Amino acid sequence: MTNIVVLIKQVPDYEDRHLTDGDWTLDRAGSDPVLDEINEKAVEVALQLKEKHADADYNVVVLTAGPSSAETAIRRALSMGADSAYHLVDDGLHGSDIVQTSWALARSLGQIEDVGVVIAGNETSDGVGGAVPAILAQFLGLPQLTAMRSIDIADGKVTGERETDDGVFGLEASLPAIVSISEKIVDDARFPSFKGIMAAKKKPVETLTLAGIGIEADEVGGAHAGSTVVSSTPKPPKSAGEKVTDEGEGGKQIADYLIAQKLL
Ligand SMILES: Cc1cc2nc3c(=O)[nH]c(=O)nc-3n(C[C@H](O)[C@H](O)[C@H](O)COP(=O)(O)OP(=O)(O)OC[C@H]3O[C@@H](n4cnc5c(N)ncnc54)[C@H](O)[C@@H]3O)c2cc1C
Q1: Is residue 198 part of a domain?
Q2: Which residues pair with 148 in a beta bridge?
Q3: Mean pLDDT, to the nearest integer, of 41-61?
Q4: Average pLDDT value for residue range 32-37
Q5: Is 39's C-beta closer than 6 angstroms to any atom of ligand 1?
Q6: Residue range 59-69: average pLDDT?
Q7: Ligand 1 atom closest to 96 (CA)
Q8: Mutate to test the pocket of ligand 1, among 11, 124, 128 (most ligand atoms within 8 A of CB)
Q9: Were both Cys, which of 96, 147, 210, 238 would link to 90 (CB 3.0–4.6 Å)?
């Protein structure tokens, strides 16, 4: 049995994000947490690979590092069809930066046997770092395929297409490998069925702790982070746009506006 591991992160609902006064960490208690949409898509991709290669005996495992409330995101992934989960939960992780988070995930992956491919989102919708998969690949010494809009697994390799502003590139890497996906990889993730939700309640979720994965207290956490948020300014509210009524000069008025904004 080969494990397809999906890295999932619980994020605050987009409409309802707040930062804690003082240290500018996320106020997790003050907003409704959800499984990040890009990670729902990553789970969908893993499930499609498992279904396509039913004879290969793949297992879909989700892994998250997050507070106990992240259990909700785990259950969502399990109710979509993932087989089991690992949850790294430890107060010592609070305030960890991207490098520390990646290190904790690298050590957590070490707890999972027979990892074939690790699928992550290209970036989260809250931290928007877009760096965890690459740092993870560096820590583990594994190849990484980035910004993939399609992937497949065959003959000990992961193959697929990466789309960037410069074009579409065919890529392959030997397994085990880290893959990060773009939004384009699937239109929508499947919605959990009632049967899936009931089944998820019985699926195994293994809790990991920092001590259990061999991470010392001074390797993670805000007090030991290499980078710190030193200030934060809320975005100004959107101002009302300028309305142009076309009375014969509308095109010119729009062109004048774009020139004034240095957009033309
Ligand atoms: C208010 C605030 C303050 C922050 N302060 C700092 C700071 O001081 N220094 C700093 O370096 N960073 C800081 N961060 C970033 C924060 O630490 C990150 O959320 C975390 O390190 C992961 O980075 P990311 O969310 O940007 O991940 P990305 O690199 O954008 O994630 C890409 C993919 O990696 C996987 N992934 C990411 N995180 C997890 C996870 N926890 N568990 C499982 N899979 C995961 C997912 O598949 C995800 O789609 C801050 C974020 C916020 C919102």
Answers
A1: yes
A2: 162, 181
A3: 97
A4: 90
A5: yes
A6: 96
A7: 17
A8: 124
A9: 210
Alpha-carbon torsion 32, 131, 86, 36, what sign? Answer: positive
pLDDT exceeding 70 applies to what percent of the chain? 95
Q: Which domain holds residue 54?
A: 2-224
Q: Scanning the structure block, which residue is given the tokens 């890009």?
A: 38
Quickly count: other Cβ atoms within 10 Å of residue 155's Cβ. Answer: 8
124 lines ligand 1 (CB under 6 A): yes
Number of domains in the chain: 1
| Domain contains 258 | no
142-187 pLDDT, tens per residue? 999 999 999 999 999 999 999 999 999 999 999 999 999 999 999 9
Torsion of CA 218, 67, 133, 23, to 10 degrees: -60
Nearest atom within ligand 1 for CA of residue 133: 34
CA 93 / ligand 1 centre spacing (Å):
12
- Structure token digits, residue 74: 């785990």
Q: What is the CATH number of the domain that holds 167?
A: 3.40.50.620
Asked if residue 232 belongs to a domain, the reply is no
Ligand 1: which residue has its CA nearest to atom 1? Answer: 25
| 26 Cβ below 6 A of ligand 1 | yes
Give residue 22's pLDDT. Answer: 72
